[in-house]
């Protein structure tokens, strides 16, 4: 099967949706979110 531009765009969009879901799941972990905030915000 020849990959068309549209099929590549759809595959990339699917990968972005998966990435977003994993990022949301990761950031919903309070320990990880606290570590990120502690590392990036001055007291």
The number of distinct structural domains comes to 1
Helix-strand pattern, N to C? HH
Q: What is the terminal separation in angstroms?
A: 56 Å
Contiguous runs where pLDDT drops below 50 for at least 5 residues:
none
User: Biggest sheet, open or closed, and with what strands and sense?
Assistant: none
Q: Over all CA atoms, what is the radius of gyration?
A: 17 Å
- Number of helical elements: 2
Q: In what range is the share of β-strand residues?
A: under 5%
From the spread of the alpha carbons, the general shape counts as elongated
- Mean of residue pLDDT values: 87
* Structural class computed from helices and strand pairing: mainly alpha
Relative helix content:
over 70%
Number of strands: 0
Describe this structure in words.
The chain is mostly helical and 43 residues long. The chain has one domain. The chain is 79% helix and 0% strand. The protein contains two helices and no strands. It has helices spanning 5-27, 30-40. It is elongated, with a radius of gyration of 17 Å. The chain starts with a helix and ends with a helix.
What's the arrangement of secondary structure elements?
Elements: H1 5-27, H2 30-40
């Amino acid at each position: 099967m020849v990959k068309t531009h549209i099929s590549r765009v759809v595959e990339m969009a699917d990968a972005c949706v998966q990435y977003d879901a994993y990022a949301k799941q990761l950031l919903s972990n309070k320990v990880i979110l606290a570590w990120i905030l502690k590392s990036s915000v001055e007291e």
